[in-house]
Amino acid sequence: MTRVANFNPGPAALPLSALELARDELLDFEGSGMSILEHSHRGAVYMKVHDEAMALFREHARVPADFEILFLQGGASQQFAVVPMNLLHPGQSADYALTGVWAEKAFAEAKNVGTVRKAADTGTDGKYTRVPTQEELNLDPKAAYFHYTTNNTVMGTQYHYAPDTGNVVQVLDMSSDVLSYPLNWSKVGLVYAGAQKNIGPTGITVVIVRKDLIASGRKDIPVIFRYATHAKEQSLYNTIPTFGVYLIRNTLRWIAAQGGVMALKKTNGEKARLIYAAIDESAGFYRGPVEVASRSEMNVVWNLHTPELEAAFLKDAEARGLAGLKGHRIVGGLRASIYNAVPLADVQKLVTFMNEFRETHS
Q1: Which of 5, 47, 115, 160 is within CB 3.0–4.6 Å of 346 for a Cys-Cys bond?
Q2: Any catalytic annotation for residue 197?
Q3: What is the pLDDT of residues 32-79, one digit of tens each?
């Protein structure tokens, strides 16, 4: 079996050890005589996995005791609507920072629920090549919350500072950089993240929400969409994707074996440094559109001079076992998604190929 170097943006690379464990346990989970896929989501065998996944996530994300961790369905896109449904009460307004396509969608969904305003918009030129500085944030001190997307998967930008919003609670979409660096929870009220980039497979969204926000959440919305419903039932109000939680558990075990989030942060920084160096030192052959201060350590984007040359790059990369390097359809170009589970050795292979391709086509 030959596995490729997987740079897909999501679904994305999973740790090999997490997949191997799933393979080995697929037919008979821990001597139970059946697969974890076949166990009741409220049975003791599955609940052991569920509780371990919750505990490991709390440990590695350093989630404070006054926050609940929820495993939900519907993806981050559902949270675009569910966040304001729970937190945005009639007569209130919420602030949003627009920094890319996912932030735009979150803003649009919130507008369907209540009153929202733009606290920042770095895409007035249609490109979103940076995140706003603290000085650019036009904040409402009475806002119900301030929402921002910590890493912009499509555009390749990332916040490298924690915005100061005073007493306004912060809501973070961390779908593409959760558990890639330690988070300061002091101003955070809610974090949500689709699992399929850094912590597991598709089908699970992790929501970490402060208990007081759950208690004060709106009661005039359907029961299934209330955070209080899922917190009360330990994320088992309805049938959860149990295999997804199992794979999250396996991935979190792998994170522990790597030395935790701080160790991942160091490796992620090195992976990003190598690719950006290949771009910056190419004498203009590769062009990175993102402002240096806003460059993402999760999704590195770049362009070549013509679409034809980019197509040749992708064809040759595939032949070398380098998969998932095509840029998002909205912006085109090239993109390497280098999430936690992407090995440093795979990034080194990519950089070697980038240098060779440049020498051949310059």
Answers
A1: 5
A2: yes
A3: 999 999 999 999 999 999 999 999 999 999 999 999 999 999 999 999
- C-alpha 272/C-alpha 103 separation (Å) is 23
- pTM, rounded to two decimals: 0.96
What is the full DSSP assignment across 102-142? HHHHHHHHHHHHSEEEEEEES-TTS---SPPPGGG----TT
| Separation of alpha carbons 70 and 359, rounded Å | 49
Of these residues, 95, 173, 177, 346, which one is catalytic?
Answer: 173
Q: Which of 257, 288, 312 is the last residue of a domain?
A: 257
DSSP H or E segment with residue 55: helix 44-61
User: 102 an active-site residue?
Assistant: yes
Count Cα neighbours of 289 within 13 Å in the Cβ-side half-sphere.
Answer: 21
Run of H or E including 249:
helix 242-258
Query: How many domains does the chain divide into?
Result: 2
- In this structure, the answer to whether residues 198 and 341 fall within a common structural domain is no
Q: Are residues 219 and 267 in the same domain?
A: no
**What's residue 165's pLDDT?**
97
Domain housing 309: 259-361
List the catalytic residue out of 95, 177, 197, 326.
Answer: 197
Are residue 249 and residue 288 in the same domain, yes or no? no
Of 95, 102, 254, 271, catalytic: 102
The encoded tokens of residue 315 equal 């064809």
Inter-residue contact 84 to 108 (CB < 8 Å): no
Cα 205 to Cα 73, 92, 218, 348, distances in angstroms? 6, 26, 21, 31
- Dihedral angle sign, alpha carbons of residues 277, 281, 285, 291: positive
Write out pLDDT tens, residues 285-295: 999 999 999 99
Q: Residues 249, 274: one domain?
A: no
Clarify whether residues 263 and 343 are in a common domain.
Answer: yes
CATH code, domain carrying 221: 3.40.640.10
